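#lab-general

N.A. 3:47 PM
ok so I finally got the sequence cleaned up, no stray characters, all 150 residues accounted for. can someone with queue access submit it? mine expired

B.Y. 3:52 PM
send it over

N.A. 3:53 PM
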Amino acid sequence: MNNKNSIVAVREFDKPHVQSHLAQVREQIKHFEKLLNDEAALMKVRNADDLPGLVQKKNEAIAALAKNDAFLIHLFSDYGGEPSVIELREQLEACRELNRVNKAVAMSELKITRKSLDLLRSLQRMDDLPLYGSAGKISVVREKRRLGEA
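B.Y. 4:20 PM
back already:
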């Protein structure tokens, strides 16, 4: 449905085409919620390899939902008291909360990774510095070691 038709159609809430559109949006939201749960599960097991593909699917799901913006706006404003509309709003709210939690986890992991990289960089710079003895002469030269080597 294009936006103009969906605005008119929402006013006819009980019509089959509106209910069909509502069912379609409900399925899109369920799919998006599943993707968010999958994303959270991948982050818990730290499976970064599968995240890019999941993020792509998540972006596609968001784009599909965005196409229904006008329909949802008018649905919520005109029929906000309908049980099916209340349920739809609650599902969207749950998705928003899941996405917020996933973002917080991702930001935390990113912060930890940045700190680890900073530590590694500082250790690498320390390996480049010679150590001087009390007479001002180099007494020890440290060798650079790669991680995982003794």
